[in-house]
Here is the input.
Amino acid sequence: MKVLQCQGKHYREVNAEVDNAWNAGEREIRLEGINGQRYIGRSLTGVGTIEISGIPGDDLGVFMDGATIFVRGNAQEGVGNTMNSGKIVVGGDIRDIAGYAMRGGKIWVRGSVGYRVGIHMKSYLSDYPVIIIGETSGDFLGEYMAGGLIIVLGLNLPAGVSPVGKFIASGMHGGKMFIRGSFSPEQAGPGIGIDRPSDDDYLEIISYLTEYATDLAMTLPPMKPDDFVKVYPTTTRPYGRVYAY
Amino acid sequence: MVKTKLAPQLEINLPIVFSAMSYGSISYNAFRSLVQAAQEVGTYCNSGEGGLHPDFYPWGKNIIVQVASGRFGVHPDYLRVASAVEIKIGQGAKPGIGGHLPGEKVSSDISRTRKIPEGSDAISPAPHHDIYSIEDLERLVFAIKEATGYEKPVSVKIAAVHNVAAIASGAIRAGADIVAIDGIRGGTGAAPQAIRDNVGIPIELALAQVDERLRQEGIRHRASVVIAGGIRSSTDVIKAIALGADAVYIGTAALVGLGCHLCQKCYTGKCNWGIATQDPYLTKRLNPNIGTRRLVNLLRAWGLEMKEMLGGMGVNSIQSLRGNKEHLRAVGLSREEMQILGVKLAGEGW
Here is the structure.
């Protein structure tokens, strides 16, 4: 394990040091004293682990391709922005646009997320991005979603309070979303289907939740299929007739 | 202290670059013609926002890749293989509309390049939802610079609208090495007609204003200005450079060279000339090697005409013409137009 002291360093320096260690074949790196440095793990290609103590700045793991990042506390905006593959595990909360246009890989968040998380997510054959949010999400979750999976668990919420905001899945034309807890159709964008998860869906949920709970070393409360609402697109062409062609 | 460290630059043999036309909006053979011609002439071809087909990676030295709001096909290799990366904020033909590749054109190859399911719409809305300010734009510019080791210029493409000068200034302050400005009549057959014909402003007016504003602010040297939208001849290129551009993008003119008849039905995916279609029966009508030859002829002819015009002006290098408005004179323009363009009336002396 390589330990890099990052206190007071500019992101350019931190990222260059991570690159040097990574290119020298180091596959377990711990970053100490991170305080707002941006782009950590950016376009990192290959399998390996980066542990972060402190609060990483915007665009953590942007364009990342294969690595795993563990953050003990919170992270800022744009976690996993345009990520290709790999995994980001956050023990606290994150803010807006996490998982923007993710094409593969996983983002596990123990706490809550901000607005427009998982927008433009895509999937193609075995490339299948997954985001699991432990507590709550802001508005526009999964906007323009074209593939992949989002699960919101709504943990630690009083009964009857929805774990997600408004305009959920606006313009969604692929992928699916499972929300545990209260969710009313008015919270979804137009043209969105709402249902209970099928048996296969529930098996998929459970398999990802097992991995999530292991990575975050937490025990999930007992769950059953009826706790979840499935949100899915009813068309692959939501704007096909907008211009009357 | 003299700052001698230059930002990364692109070198071109001719100040004409092929504009952003994605593989998806145009066919494989059309895209191949463009990259081959760009390589032969020593210029660049912009990939558009639809990702880059693996077959075209060997031409990376002559390709500018684009990152738009849908982020189709954007991954580390895509950014590394290109010579420059362009962030598309706006498009002259459809400011405020965004990109929308209809499901009919998302064939299996397109779906592989863009990483979306076959037959599904490819939606790239007007706003980048991670960019709500110049500071946010700076974050994306530097994310790309970080991902490419600060070795490639980052371009920001904006539409020519009424406050374009302030927007261009902001883009440069956000770290852009190139600002691309796209004017009204940037060709497309895939934008709503009411938007296409009415929303943008003419590129000459926008360019003159941007150049003037950047000079006043003392930041003109920090970025190149590339303009697009309505460049139809070599004289248009000369005028654009004299008004302050470093280079121009051509899209429609190049497609006309490939055989486009401007029927403006690109959105149907039924292009008879094998250009704006993914139907294998139609795309094979365009032979990429003949297409390359036509494009090379077009650029070479424009290049020769431009040299003749420079000779006529007594200017021995194209750089000396940049922003040199004294070489321009107006005929039939109003006083206000001449004022905005910064050119004198024909007949007026120095």
About this structure: DSSP finds 13 helices and twelve strands in chain B. Residues 288-313 of chain B form the longest helix (26 residues). The interface with chain A takes residues 69-72, 74-76, 79, 100, 102-103, 111-112, 114-117, 119-121, 123, 125, 129-130, 139, 142-143, 146-147, 192, 267-268 of chain B (CB under 8 Å). Residues 16-345 of chain B form a domain with the TIM Barrel fold (CATH 3.20.20.70).
